[in-house]
Design a protein that fits this description.
It is a single chain. The protein is an all-alpha fold and about 160 residues long. It has one domain. Helix content is about 65%, strand content about 0%. The protein has four helices and no strands.
Length: about 160
């Protein structure tokens, strides 16, 4: 078994070496610090130039924001318009759908009801109605028309 020799303290030889190591470490850290400071100064100068040249860019940015807001508003209008169209078609579909006796709910033979035939051209309507019914059942915002039977008859189910 070997044992470590006791610490003998600083010697004349180890003291200068120790100091040199610390001086080298300090010099390395100082170079890193100087490099970081130079990078930050360059970044500050670039930001100051950008700020000085900014008035035109700010106007462009605000102008762009107004255009974006107008586009969003137009998209919302288009969405509401589409929802209104689906609601109207849904109401027509509720009045003109095939009953169990092969007749349209309006009283005509289903095959002879032009409204039922037109509504039949839009298979997406049944999908939309089912999605809205599911939203209604999940207590989410929905777009079912006010007179839709799903709103008054808990047993109503989409086709």
């Amino acid at each position: 078994m070997t044992t470590a020799s006791p610490h003998q303290g600083m010697t004349l030889r180890s003291d200068p070496e120790h100091i040199q190591l610390w001086q080298k470490l300090l010099a390395d850290r100082q170079r890193e610090h100087d490099k970081a400071v130079a990078q930050l100064r360059d970044r500050i100068a670039a930001l100051e130039r950008e700020l000085h040249e900014r008035p035109e860019k700010v106007v462009e940015r605000w102008h762009g924001a107004a255009e974006i807001e107008a586009a969003k508003a137009e998209a919302q209008r288009a969405f509401r318009s589409r929802q209104n169209a689906w609601q109207a078609l849904c109401e027509i579909r509720l009045l003109h759908r095939e009953a169990s006796d092969g007749r349209c709910r309006c009283g005509k033979r289903y095959a002879d009801c032009p409204e039922a035939q037109i509504v039949g051209y839009y298979p997406g309507l049944a999908k939309w109605e089912k999605e809205q019914w599911e939203r209604y059942r999940n207590y989410e915002d929905h777009a079912l028309p006010d007179r839709h039977p799903a709103l008054t008859n808990p047993r109503w189910r989409p086709d």
